[in-house]
Structure formats: structure tokens, C-alpha cells
């Protein structure tokens, strides 16, 4: 019976290349760096359960849906994306401006006709457009200005308006640094 001679298999190419590379130049010693302690916010944000949003779409209950649609569309420049009617009567709209959606719904008065709207609420919107021009156009079309365009210490230029129900909306642009 003839015995079979064992032959040695050549090393895989990757292993051989890595071995040749390590033989060429010695690695410098690893630098010791101080690790920055994570803040409580960073620790909390890294949790798998934390919420990650991509957008937000506010919904406003309004006193007069037709008046509000006019203001958002014709005064501020939003576009009506969708309308909701009930028995032929307009009950709500979805408005769009760029990537931002705003929804308006007609108050059904179940919580009383004296219910105040807009108090304690403000919406901040960023744009890439010239806010001075936007403010001038809104003002010319009848917008109630709460704040004329001005530079803010946090790096934006913005202006604020009030819608027919008292909701405050600020439009800003990041200033180039």
C-alpha cells in the first residue's frame, strides 16, 4: 500500500499580504487619549427606545376656516394640499410650504365659543428664502407683524406674524457665518 504524501497548502492571499505589511514597518505605540465623559443627554439619546422624528406637522383649530385658509394661502404663501368636507361644508385643510405641513380644522364649538386660541403657542419655521422679502410681502398682503425682520444672537434673521386666531409663527433663515 502506497502512502500518500501530504502537501502544505499555500497561505491565503489576504493573510500573506497582512503578514508582509506588518513585517515592513513597526507600528507606533498606541496613544493614550482621555475619554470625554458622556452627558446624561447623550446617554439617554443612545438608548434604543429614544424617539427619532423626521418632521412635525402642527394642527390648529380655527374659528373661521375660510378666513384662515385665505390668510395661510394668500397672505403667507402656503399651498392647499388637501381639503376635508362634511356635508358639503369645509371642515379642514392640509397646507404645505416646502417640506412643512400645517393642518387647519374648523372649531366645532363643543368646548364653547369663547375658547381662546393661539395663546402660549408659537411655531418657528426655517427657510432658505430672503426673510426680509417674505416679511415685506406678508405685510403688504395684510399680515399682522409681531416682529419686523432682525438678526438674532443665535445666528438667524427672522420675523414673526400672528394668524387670524392669534397663533404666532416666526420665519427665519440661518445667517452665513
Strand portion, in percent?
A: 25-35%
CATH superfamily grouping of the domain at 59-108 and 118-174: 2,3-Dihydroxybiphenyl 1,2-Dioxygenase, domain 1
CATH topology of the domain at 59-108 and 118-174: 2,3-Dihydroxybiphenyl 1,2-Dioxygenase, domain 1
- Low-pLDDT segments: none
- Cα distance spanning the termini: 86 Å
CATH architecture identity of the domain at 59-108 and 118-174: Roll
User: Helicity range of the residues?
Assistant: 10-25%
User: Mind summarizing the main beta sheet?
Assistant: 4 strands, mixed
Question: In words, what does this structure look like?
Answer:
22% of the residues lie in helices and 31% in strands. It is α/β, with parallel strands linked by helices and 177 residues long. It has helices spanning 13-24, 40-45, 65-75, 131-140; strands at 59-62, 79-86, 89-97, 100-106, 122-126, 144-151, 156-162, 168-174. It starts with 12 loop residues before the first helix and ends with a strand. The protein has a domain at 59-108 and 118-174: 2,3-Dihydroxybiphenyl 1,2-Dioxygenase, domain 1, CATH 3.10.180.10. Strand 2 and strand 3 form a beta hairpin. The radius of gyration is 31 Å and the shape is elongated. It contains four helices and eight strands.
Amino acid at each position: 500500500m502506497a502512502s500518500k504524501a501530504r502537501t502544505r497548502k499555500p497561505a491565503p492571499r489576504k493573510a500573506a499580504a497582512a503578514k508582509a505589511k506588518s513585517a515592513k514597518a513597526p507600528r507606533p505605540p498606541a496613544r493614550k487619549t482621555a475619554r470625554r465623559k458622556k452627558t446624561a443627554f447623550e446617554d439617554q439619546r443612545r438608548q434604543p427606545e429614544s424617539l427619532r422624528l423626521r418632521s412635525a406637522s402642527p394642527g390648529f383649530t380655527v374659528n373661521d376656516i375660510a378666513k384662515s385658509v385665505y390668510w395661510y394661502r394668500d397672505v403667507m404663501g402656503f399651498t392647499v394640499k388637501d381639503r376635508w368636507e362634511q356635508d358639503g361644508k369645509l371642515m379642514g385643510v392640509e397646507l404645505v410650504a416646502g417640506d412643512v405641513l400645517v393642518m387647519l380644522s374648523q372649531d366645532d364649538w363643543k368646548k364653547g365659543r369663547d375658547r381662546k386660541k393661539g395663546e402660549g403657542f408659537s411655531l418657528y419655521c426655517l427657510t432658505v428664502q430672503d426673510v426680509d422679502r417674505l416679511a415685506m410681502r406678508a405685510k403688504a398682503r395684510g399680515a399682522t407683524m409681531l416682529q419686523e425682520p432682525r438678526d438674532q444672537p443665535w445666528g438667524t434673521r427672522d420675523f414673526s406674524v400672528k394668524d387670524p386666531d392669534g397663533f404666532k409663527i416666526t420665519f427665519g433663515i440661518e445667517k452665513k457665518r
